[in-house]
């Protein structure tokens, strides 16, 4: 019998999607079908189908991708773009509900069973997070942060480049360098906070120390950075020592809920609030308000999702939750602003940087792809695959306006209403 797995899979996919698969498909038996001149979706093993049968939707696909049982040959962005165009906005969950309603789910499952053959799926890839206990406790947050960040500083150096900044850069032109754009972002934050010599900055979620080093070196402040990633803290301290800044830069392995000194002249929180969780966000905002001096400023840089008609229906993407940011949650920017104001801050400026993050992610994907074999060696093949898919898909998300990122500048206004803010925007001091 001639190989026909690809044709049978393509027919099942067309039933599920309600339209032909927009990619060429190659199966484990060597068969191919579908349009020419498109990226090729490669199903390397029947194990991928077994994963889908046991965990339909995003989780089964994620496990198959991480394990290398499915892959894409050709332009990954183009492949994701084509697939997104035919999958409902709600992703796998909405697709699954539709198939149940119209009666195709059982027929597709039966077809997959015949193709997959006997057997159960292998265990989940080792890169999948394992969590215990209540979400957003200090213990579980430490484990979640360690899963994402404690995977090797050398791996992150290959992806992020020399700046070691893991957040959206600030591009004055699209063809500029990543390093210049990250320098511009660090400097923009310092200017928005109106930092000046002698002040004390607290950077919550300081990563590998790039912002505190920039602030100390170029603005003459004392800077304290906190992180709950041991590997990040080790490298941040080493970088401070190499820069001769140990007298002005302190790096602590510390949860934001355990900071009881201060008050600080200014606080930055860049790419950290996404880890806080809705249940803790008001507490987070109140802690920041307590830690900054009256008249002091907060710069909160945070990824945002679009608001839903029914916010109770918000669910984190399973691939992101299991393999990238365990327990991470995104909020609409309006919710972030409201929480900061409820905690006592006066919000004075909001700058949307959505397009900047798309450019940043594409630069990181280029870095990863250029060093992919080395990235596999430094971590694991599965983790390198996780990061490539997550960053490419996120770049498209920012480009399509399904997610955004914003810098919110807020002030702990004085009792008499004085804010220390300039009358006109553009000059931050």
Automatic annotation (TrEMBL):
Q: Name one Pfam family in it.
A: CMAS
Q: Provide this UniProt record's keywords sorted from A to Z.
A: Lipid metabolism, Methyltransferase, S-adenosyl-L-methionine, Transferase
| SUPFAM superfamilies the UniProt entry points to | S-adenosyl-L-methionine-dependent methyltransferases
| Enzyme category, top tier | transferase
Q: Which InterPro entries match?
A: CFA/CMAS, CMAS, MeTfrase_dom, SAM-dependent_MTases_sf
Q: Where is the composition biased (Basic and acidic residues)?
A: 127-143
EC number in record: 2.1.1.-
Tell me the Gene Ontology biological-process terms attached to this UniProt entry.
methylation
- List every stretch annotated Disordered: 117-143
Domain Polyketide synthase-like methyltransferase: start-end pairs: 155-396
The residues the entry assigns to the signal sequence are none
Annotated SMART domains: PKS_MT
Q: What is a GO molecular function of this protein?
A: methyltransferase activity
Checking PANTHER family in the record gives: CYCLOPROPANE-FATTY-ACYL-PHOSPHOLIPID SYNTHASE
Family label:
Belongs to the CFA/CMAS family.
The protein in question is named: Cyclopropane-fatty-acyl-phospholipid synthase family protein
Originating organism: Streptomyces exfoliatus (Streptomyces hydrogenans)
Organismal lineage = Bacteria, Bacillati, Actinomycetota, Actinomycetes, Kitasatosporales
């Amino acid at each position: 019998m001639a190989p026909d797995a690809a044709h049978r899979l393509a027919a099942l996919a067309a039933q599920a999607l309600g339209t032909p698969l927009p990619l060429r498909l190659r199966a484990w038996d060597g068969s191919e079908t579908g349009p020419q001149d498109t990226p090729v979706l490669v199903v390397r093993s029947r194990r991928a189908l077994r994963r889908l049968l046991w965990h339909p939707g995003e989780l089964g696909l994620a496990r198959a991708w991480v394990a290398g049982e499915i892959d894409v040959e050709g332009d990954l962005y183009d492949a994701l773009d084509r697939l997104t165009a035919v999958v409902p906005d709600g992703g796998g969950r909405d697709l699954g509900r539709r198939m149940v309603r119209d009666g195709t789910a059982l027929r597709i499952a039966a077809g997959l069973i015949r193709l997959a053959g006997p057997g159960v799926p292998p265990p989940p890839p080792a890169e999948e997070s394992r969590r215990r206990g209540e979400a957003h406790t200090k213990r579980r947050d430490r484990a979640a942060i360690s899963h994402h960040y404690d995977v090797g500083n050398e791996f992150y150096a290959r992806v992020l480049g020399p700046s070691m900044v893991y957040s959206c850069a600030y591009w004055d032109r699209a063809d500029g360098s990543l390093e210049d754009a990250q320098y511009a972002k660090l400097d923009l934050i310092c200017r928005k906070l109106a930092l000046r010599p002698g002040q004390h900055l607290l950077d919550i979620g300081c990563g590998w120390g790039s912002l505190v080093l920039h602030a100390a070196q170029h603005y003459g402040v004392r800077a304290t950075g906190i992180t709950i990633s041991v590997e990040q803290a080790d490298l941040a301290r080493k970088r401070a020592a190499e820069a001769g800044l140990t007298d002005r830069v302190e790096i602590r392995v510390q949860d934001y809920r355990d900071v009881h000194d201060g008050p600080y002249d200014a606080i930055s929180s860049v790419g950290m609030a996404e880890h806080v969780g809705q249940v803790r966000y008001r507490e987070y905002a109140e802690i920041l308000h307590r830690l900054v001096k009256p008249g002091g400023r907060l710069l909160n840089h945070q990824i945002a999702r679009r608001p839903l008609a029914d916010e109770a229906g918000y669910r984190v993407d399973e691939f992101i939750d299991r393999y990238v940011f365990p327990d991470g949650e995104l909020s609409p920017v309006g919710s972030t602003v409201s929480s900061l104001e409820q905690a006592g801050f006066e919000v004075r400026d909001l700058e949307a940087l959505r397009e900047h993050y798309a450019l940043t992610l594409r630069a990181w994907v280029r870095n990863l792809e250029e060093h992919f074999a080395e990235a596999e060696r430094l971590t694991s093949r599965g983790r390198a695959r996780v990061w490539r898919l997550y960053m490419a898909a996120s770049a498209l998300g920012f480009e399509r306006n399904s997610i955004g990122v914003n810098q919110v500048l807020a002030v702990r206004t004085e009792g008499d209403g004085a804010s220390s803010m300039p009358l006109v925007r553009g000059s931050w001091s």
